[in-house]
Amino acid sequence: MINFKKDSLWSYSQIQYTQPGVEEYCLELQNTYRGNVNILLFCSWLGYCGIKISIKDIILAISTIQDWDLNVVQSLRRARKYYTESPVAIENNNIKSDLKKLELISEKSVQNTLYEWTLLQNFMPSIAKDLKWTITNINKYLVILDAPILSDKNKLFTHENFT
Question: How many Cβ atoms are within 10 Å of 3's Cβ, its own excluded?
Fold first, then answer.
């Protein structure tokens, strides 16, 4: 069994998302290819942990979170975007902030589910960490999305800020 800290995926994702260019890349993938940012960061995290995954693993992970993501996360995201574009948004900005908080809480729930799912798998992590595993995992997800793959020399998903 893999021994990860409970919030390691969430912590990793929060740090990774703030790295230069990552947020923009994630949102482009979400908006252009209907990608799931949590799955993208999950693939990156597994690579960081020394775990290479298959396309089948990614599809199983997606199916694990699919209902919650569709019915809760995406609904909250649509509500936040709708509210932001409505004339009422100017009058009360607290609602936008509250919707964003709920959206983040629902995304953390997705990541907790992915974390729990990972614990149930027979993944064999390597002690040596290699950025190529992160890029390889991400590229497998990009193949599913029919999105352009990342170069092995990609600098978006580095591990420089992680120990």
Answer: 6
Identity of residue 123: F
Q: Are 50 and 126 spatial neighbours (Cβ–Cβ below 8 Å)?
A: yes
The count of other CB atoms within 10 Å of the CB of residue 161 is 10
Look at the block and give the residue holding tokens 């947020």: 23
> Hey, is 26 helix, strand or coil?
helix
Q: Going along 24-110, which residue ranges are E strands?
A: none
CB proximity list for 74: less than 8 A, separation 6 or greater: none
Enumerate helices (H) and strands (E) in the chain, giving the number of each: 8, 0
Euclidean distance between CA atoms 79 and 163, whole angstroms: 37
Q: Is 68 helix (H, G, I), strand (E, B) or coil?
A: helix
**What pLDDT, in 10s, does the model give residues 30-85?**
999 999 999 999 999 999 989 999 999 999 999 999 999 999 999 999 998 888 77
